[in-house]
């Protein structure tokens, strides 16, 4: 593709405002629920890897990465693998604190890096073995393995938040899409 083609897309490549706004509306609904739950409970029901999961749910069909089995299963696998790696290799450390020290070749950063690497390997293999392919869950395993949400309670909250996201999408967001005709026509 040349520069001219990139700057002047064909009709099929142009923005579909209706689809894009409906996807944005869908994501807003997802995060109003989870953000409200986080606010009301004081618990981390809103965390970074939910963003890609909500995006996949809101923008259309991708059978290898979307759907309850893949989304919930992928995040559950990731939380468990991240927790195992963290508890074995970096228990008690938090990546933000370790990097704040700015110490080169620190033992703490090495342990966290190793925890992240092991968590990613375990998560990748486990998702393939269980057919719970959900790329966004790779962010979850790093969140856990790097000490940001690294307790058993945090892992449970992760799985509950993801299950609520999927449930809310299937029960509420799908109905809103049907009633108001805002389901994206062009899954991307």
UniProtKB/TrEMBL annotation:
Residues 14-177 form the HPP transmembrane region domain. It comes from the Archaea. Pfam families: TM_HPP (PF04982). Keywords: Membrane, Transmembrane, Transmembrane helix. The chain crosses the membrane at residues 27-47, 67-89, 109-130, 142-168. The keyword Acyltransferase does not apply. InterPro entries: TM_HPP. This is HPP family protein. It comes from Natronolimnobius baerhuensis.
